[in-house]
Amino acid sequence: MVQGGAQVALQTGSQEDLLAFVKSFDSLKYQDNVTKAQFLWQADPNPEIRKAADEHIEDPPAELDTFLNETVHTMKVPELTRQAWQLRDAGGNTVKEKADAAISSGTYDDLVDFVVEGGFEKARYEDQQRQAYELARTGGPELKASAEAAVLGDRAMLNEFVSVEAFRKSGDDAERTVYNDSINALLQQGFSAAQKASENAAKAQQSYYAAYGDSVKARDYANQASQWAGKAAQSARIAQDHVRNAENSLRFALAQKERAHTAANQAEADARQAGANADAATSYALQAHQSANDAASSAATARQSANQAGYDAQRAGQAAQEAYDAAIQKQLAEEAELQEASMAGAGDNAPTSVLDAIKETIGKEALNILLDFIGVTDVINCFKGEISGCLWTALSFIPGGAIVKFGKGLKAASAIRKLLAKLPDVKKLLSVRKQQKADRLIAGLSKPGKCGIALAASRQQPTYSFAIHRPTHNKTKAHIQPAISRCGGYPRTFTVHQLDIHTLTPDELNVFMKWDRTTPLSDIKASEIMAFGYKTKETQVIAAISSLQDKVANSVIQVPVTQPHILNKIGLRNAPKPLDLHKRTVGKTSAQNQFAQMQALFAQKRGASAARLNQRDVDFVYDEKLDKKVLKTLSRGRPDVNIVDSSGRSIKTEFDRPPAPRAFHHARQLLDANPNADVWLLTLDDIDESDDLMKVITANRNAVDSYNP
C-alpha cells in the first residue's frame, strides 16, 4: 500500500501530492501490515499463526506491527529450526557448518537467513563446487568431463550435476568398466584355454618320450606342462577377477542409474512444488497488485472531482490519498468476508492460479513450450514485475546457448509473442475468475430453517439478525445466514446521519458533543451543557439546541444497499478487552482524535455498557450457554467510536475529512454488522488550535476526565 500510495502521489509529482503522501505514510504502512496479517490468516501453513493473525488483524497500528515483526517471528522459529535440521542432514560440510550456526543462534533472523533467504543455497553451492572439483580429480573419464563442465557452468548446471548427472556419469563410467572387464575376462579365458592346450601338448610329449625311454626329454616336457598349467591357472584366476569386477561394476552402474533416476524425479517434484508455491504466492501478489491499481484509479477520480469542485491542490491531493485508502479498505473488507465464507465451507477462495490463467488464454502447448524454455520460476517471476519487459528479455536470449539446449527457440519465441499479445486477456481472466468465485460463495450460502441470533435489545421491527455460521450435525456442510436474507428482508436503504462539523457554531458543537444521541435534543437541560468543559452562556443554550435540531434533521440521508453483503462475521466471538480510551486515536488530525476520545469517555461516564475507539465492531448478544447477554464481535469493521448505551442501543460514529469519500462504505459496513445501529458520519478536517471550533473540542476533551454526571 505504501508503494501504491507513492504511485498516487507521483501521478502528478506536485509538491502538494507528495506532501499528502508523506502525511499518509503511517496510515499506508498500517494498511500494508493489515494486508500481511490477512495473508497470514489466509495462507500460512501453520494453523496457530493463522489463528493468531485472525485475532490480531484488528490491532491498532503499533500492536499490529509488534505482532507481525516480533510475535509471528517467534512463532515461526520452531518450524524454521526443523527445516534447518532437515537441510543440515541433507547437506555437505559447509551446509552443516552454517546450519549449526543458525540452529545454535536460534534467532528468527539467523534461521530465516539460512532457510529462506539464501544462506542454505550459498552453503550448498560451496559444497557442490568442492564436490565437483574432487570428482573432476578422481572420477572416471565420463564423470571427470562432466564435473569439469559443471565447475565452469552456472549454479543451476552445478546443482544438476551434483544432484543427478554425477550419478549418471558415474554409472556410465561403471558401465565402461563392465565392458572393459568383460573383454579382459574373455581374453584371459582365451589365454587360459591356450595355455591349457600347451599343457596338454607338453604332457603328450612327456608320455611319448617316457614310453621310448628318453627320461631327459620326458622330464623336460613334464616341466613345460607344469609351467603351462600354472599359467593357465593364473589366467583363469585373472579372468575370474575380471568377471567379479564386471559384476560389481554392473551392480554399481545400475545403482548409480537408479540414484540418478530417483534424484531426477525428486528434483522434478521439488521443482513442481516450488513452482506451485511461487504460483500461489504470485496469485496473491497479483490480486493485491490489482487491488492497488483499482484503488489508484479511484484516487485519480477523486483528485479530478476535487479539482472540479474547486478545491486547492493540497486538498485535491489529500482527497486522492483518502480515496486510495478508502478503496483499499473496502477491498480488504470484501476479501475478509469471502474468506470467512470459504473457511465455513461455502467454497474455495484461493486466488486463481497464474499458470492456469495463462494456459486457458494461450493454450496448453504454448505454455508447456514457455515453461521448457524459461522455466516455471521465471514465468512466475515475470508476473511479479514488469511482465512484458521480463519476457522480451527472455526472448532476446533465444539466439544464444538456450536454443542449443532446448532446441525450441522458434516455438518459444512464438509462445512468448503470443503471451505478450494476450497479457490483457490473462489479467482480465484473473479478475473474472475472482468474481466468479465470489459469486459461487454467495450462491453456496445455505439459509438455515430459522433466523440467526437476534439483537439483545431492539427498538424497531422487524429485527434483523447478525450473519452467523451454523454447522450441521455431520459438519460436512456449513449453514450461513447471509446479511442479504436476514429475518424480515434486508431493506434497500438505511437511514443514517451525515453531519459536517464545520457547519456548526461553537455553541451548537458544544451541545452536540454533550448529547448522548439517544435523548431527544428538546429534552436536554441547559445545566447539562454547562456542567463541564466549554462554557456556553445559559441564555444561548436554548437557541443553540433549537438551531442544532434543524441541522440534525437536515443531516438525515438514505444509504442504498448497492450490492449483496455476504457476511461480516461467521461465528460470534467474545469481544477482546477494550483498550485505554486515553491512548486511542481514530485519524490523523488532533480534532478528530480529541472529539472521539471525549465522546467515548463521556458515554463511559454516563454508564454506557460499552465504549470503544477504533476496535473491532461489538454488540451485546444473548449467549445460550451462559444464559446472559455477552459482548461479542460482530464484524471485521472497526468503527471510530462504538458505544452501546445502558439500554442496549448501539451508536456508531465514523470520522472523515472532506470530501468524505469513505462515508457510504463505512455506513454499509456498520449497518451490515447491526442494521439497528444509529450511524453518524461526521466530517471534520484538521483545525488550527486558535479556531473557535477547536477551542470547544479541546475544552471538552480536557474536562471530561473529571466530569461526574
Fraction of helical residues: 55-70%
What is the first-to-last residue Cα distance? 45 Å
Count of strand segments: 11
The coarse overall form would be elongated
Radius of gyration: 40 Å
Could you tell me the mean pLDDT?
A: 69
Report the β-strand fraction as a percent range: 5-15%
| Unreliable stretches | 1-6, 273-279, 384-389, 391-408, 445-488, 565-570
Summarize the structure.
The protein has 23 helices and eleven strands.
Key attributes of the depicted protein:
single chain, 709 residues, alpha+beta, 8% strand
Write the layout of secondary structure elements.
Blueprint: H1 2-10, H2 15-23, H3 25-43, H4 47-56, H5 61-89, H6 93-105, H7 108-115, H8 119-138, H9 141-152, H10 155-211, H11 215-308, H12 313-343, H13 354-362, H14 364-384, H15 387-396, H16 401-406, H17 409-444, E1 469-471, E2 478-480, E3 493-500, H18 506-513, H19 526-529, H20 538-554, E4 556-560, E5 573-574, H21 590-605, E6 610-613, E7 618-623, E8 628-633, E9 641-644, E10 650-656, H22 663-673, E11 678-683, H23 692-704
Parallel strand pairs: 3-11, 10-11
Antiparallel strand pairs: 1-2, 3-4, 5-8, 6-9, 7-8, 9-10
Helix pairs in contact: 1-2, 1-11, 1-12, 2-12, 3-4, 3-5, 3-12, 4-5, 5-6, 5-7, 6-7, 6-8, 8-9, 8-10, 9-10, 10-11, 11-12, 11-14, 13-14, 13-17, 14-15, 14-17, 15-17, 18-20, 18-23, 21-23
Architecture overview:
It contains 23 helices and eleven strands. The protein has 709 residues and is an alpha+beta fold. Among the domains are: 122-271; 352-444, no CATH class; 493-704, no CATH class. The strands form three sheets. Strands 4-3-11-10-9-6 form a six-stranded mixed beta sheet, sandwiched between helices. The chain has a three-stranded antiparallel beta sheet with strand order 5-8-7, with no helix packed on it. The protein has a two-stranded antiparallel sheet with strand order 1-2. A hairpin with a 6-residue loop joins strand 1 (469-471) and strand 2. The chain is elongated and about 165 Å long. It comes from Corynebacterium pseudogenitalium ATCC 33035. This is Tox-REase-7 domain-containing protein.
